[in-house]
Design a protein that fits this description.
about 35% helix; two-stranded parallel sheet; eight-stranded mixed sheet; about 15% strand; alpha/beta; single chain
């Protein structure tokens, strides 16, 4: 069990057997597919399921932190509004330790969200990172929220490693893509896990349709460099299958590793309910496609309501959300 920032499991007090079990949420890694977490959380809100403990890895740490802070209503409109211009605008290129420094992204969140520290969040929160020097799993449960999230999302080769307490930290998906173990250690008795990568190997190569609109000028130049081809190529080659970008190759390669690790860890550390959105058609760097990702998360959560009701013992009646088990 990681020693970094971890907490001893909490034991229910005597005489509390009739109380609702402590519900933990383990939001998994998956790059742009992580916007599906928002759809899952919206369904949980609508049916009255409020997790007591929130844990996340990588993009799950970002969405989980917003939820634990009560900021989901501010995060969702922003991610839905993202286009390629906004995504590229948050990229600060750096060749050394990773393609993206991450300073612009961190500055963006610092300007818009008050960060009083993980300890001050309304809900207990923790996220997972990886110690680059030792390969150890690191549980981040103290200190600035934005710094913890920045460490958890530091995809190797894409984001430069984060520095914390003399260590270099990278994406937690390398060691614990769906942090069930962290939620359990923080005292969760019932754990809802969201696995974003289960159907990764079914992902079909998307076709670029003729006449697809593209940003011009500087945006084409920057994105063309990241794709490994010129801006003219990016505009003219619109008839065949779209070649994966450099970022897509790196992130998808890591997600394949995470897919295998997830299967192993969930087998040894099972959650009570696992929600698996169908996200095969959303690429790793499709951060501009929040709407379909959120929709997929919503659909998967609705389909899991029967299992959620059984696990938690709640009567999900009159919620306005269809329960396929009824």
């Amino acid at each position: 069990m990681p020693a970094d920032g971890s907490q001893a499991p909490r034991v229910r007090a005597p005489g509390a057997a009739s109380a609702r079990p402590r519900v933990g949420l383990a939001l998994g890694s998956g790059a742009a597919r992580g916007w599906a977490h928002i759809g899952v959380l919206r369904v949980l809100q609508e049916v009255g399921i409020e997790p007591d403990i929130v844990c996340g890895t990588s993009i799950g740490a970002l969405v989980g932190a917003a939820y634990a802070a009560g900021e989901l209503d501010r995060l969702e409109p922003w991610v839905r509004s993202l286009g390629w211009q906004q995504v590229v605008g948050l990229i600060d290129l750096k060749l050394g330790g990773g393609l993206i420094e991450g300073g612009k992204l961190v500055a963006f969140f610092r300007e818009r969200f008050v960060d009083g520290g993980i300890e001050a969040l309304p809900k207990p929160f923790g996220c997972v990172a990886t110690d680059l020097a030792t390969g150890r799993e690191v549980w981040l449960q103290q200190g600035p929220v934005i710094d913890a999230v920045r460490a958890s999302i530091a995809i190797p080769g894409v984001f430069t490693p984060a520095r914390a307490q003399g260590r270099l930290l990278v994406d937690g998906g390398l060691v614990n893509p769906v942090p069930v173990s962290l939620a359990r250690a923080m005292g969760a008795e019932i754990i809802i896990a969201v696995d974003l990568n289960w159907d990764l190997m079914r992902r079909r190569q998307r076709v670029v349709g003729r006449g697809r609109s593209r940003a011009r000028g500087l945006l084409d130049g920057v994105w063309g460099r990241l794709r490994g081809r010129s801006a003219d190529d990016a505009r003219d080659d619109e008839t065949g299958p779209e070649a994966p970008s450099l970022l897509d190759v790196m992130v998808t390669s890591m997600n394949i590793v995470q897919w295998r690790i997830t299967q192993s860890r969930l087998a040894g550390e099972p959650a009570d309910v696992v929600i698996r959105p169908m996200l095969a058609d959303i690429a790793a760097m499709d951060f501009h496609r929040a709407a379909p990702a959120i929709g997929a998360g919503r659909k998967a959560a609705e389909q899991a309501l029967g299992a959620l009701r059984e696990a938690i013992g709640l009567g999900l009646v009159g919620s306005g959300v269809a329960d396929p088990s009824l």
